[in-house]
Amino acid sequence: MVYHREFIYFEHIMMWCLLGLSLLICHVVYAADIDYLRSTITKHFSENRHHVNNNTNKMASKEFIYNEFKRFGLQTFYHNFNNTGISTVPFANVVGILKGTNFGKVNDKIIGLGAHYNTVQHTKGVDDNGAGVAAMLEVAKQLTGQNKQGVTRKNTIIFVSFDLEEERYIGSEVFIQNWLNPWLDKNYGNAARSLQPHGIIILDTVMEYNTSSNSQKLPNGAAYFFPKSYESIESDNFQGDFLAMIYRKTVDGSLATSMTMSWSSEKRPQFEIESFPLPFTNISSLNQTVKDSFENFFRSDHTNFWLDNIPAIFLTDSGNFRGDMVKCYHHPCDDLATMLTDDNINFLGKTSDAIARSINELSEPTKPDTSGCIRVSVSHVISALMVLAFFIL
Ligand SMILES: *[C@@H]1O[C@H](CO)[C@@H](O)[C@H](O)[C@H]1NC(C)=O
Ligand SMILES: *[C@@H]1O[C@H](CO)[C@@H](O)[C@H](O)[C@H]1NC(C)=O
Ligand SMILES: *[C@@H]1O[C@H](CO)[C@@H](O)[C@H](O)[C@H]1NC(C)=O
Ligand SMILES: *[C@@H]1O[C@H](CO)[C@@H](O)[C@H](O)[C@H]1NC(C)=O
Ligand SMILES: *[C@@H]1O[C@H](CO)[C@@H](O)[C@H](O)[C@H]1NC(C)=O
N or C end: fewer C-beta atoms under 10 angstroms in the chain? Predict the structure, then answer.
């Protein structure tokens, strides 16, 4: 009897030890492939990508994104479109889909990640927006990598790279109207209009990191509208050492909260995040005075999703408000020599990791995410138990 009781006691301890061990070794690690980020930017997003100045190179980067999506195992599409008002050359968005088990059903809470790949005429567009595309590809690589390890997800993830962002965000506008809505109708039928997506994360100009005092400028009214972030930036002597997250306080709040929580789960505290919650919900109903005073917060593809009542958050280094981008934004020095520093690429790595973590959680993975686990086989556990039993009994 005594022996029996001891054995139960022993079993109990072992159970708790194993549980503790499995929690410890299965803590998920998101570790961006810094070499992949660096080589993607260097080889594919370091020359002009404008339809007049270098359409050949723009086409090559479009094909690169498509091929990467395919290589990762996404269902991949071109959304080809014309805009003769801009040019007679053809334009294209690139789309990659990672279907969840809720695909086609009303309870699919779709999550998007978008970044434009075109540039203005006289820039190489390393920060604007080679950096955003590289981070989007890195996130797709990490999440599809988890799926290859056996993770399945309830919710569908859409990756999209936009053309013609630099012309009043035409690429994302036609994407929503002529690709996304018809695609939803086709695949979700009557449920398409009742979907409640988590929303989309837009990356635009995300790599510049600057720890010099006063390297960060802020638009007028920032102290009044965003007192918490203003105070935090001021107490850091206006260093440009953070990712800016712009969103509508109401409808985009839960996406923003997920991103903030993922950011704080990542190490590397020198890279910060600051929130800019906007005090309105329906941007179609704003008068011109309000539109003008917030114009800097509308400057990317997220605006088209807001106009269509789709939740969206805009992540950016704030472009021409920060450090070298004050002079390099839309200019030739947005190039490798200025932008591809170790600090900048590591900052981009943290951004990729926080987004991968956030999208993974929002996708409701149905199996535990084992990408960061040390694999422990059953035979390892049995032999460990036998060794322990030998010493204790
Ligand atoms: C166009 O892009 C190619 C790389 O694909 C580059 O070698 C060339 O210098 C670029 N030309 C211009 C005018 O930007
Ligand atoms: C774009 O225009 C060209 C030339 O008129 C035409 O061949 C092509 O089918 C058009 N593409 C789309 C997507 O409408
Ligand atoms: C947003 O405002 C516009 C213009 O006032 C209005 O037509 C539209 O119905 C509003 N949308 C929502 C979802 O409230
Ligand atoms: C514009 O809207 C704001 C906020 O609703 C309001 O305070 C302001 O008086 C309006 N301005 C004009 C010129 O209508
Ligand atoms: C930081 O920003 C300042 C301008 O505020 C600029 O002169 C400097 O080159 C930047 N440093 C880095 C490392 O980007």
Answer: N
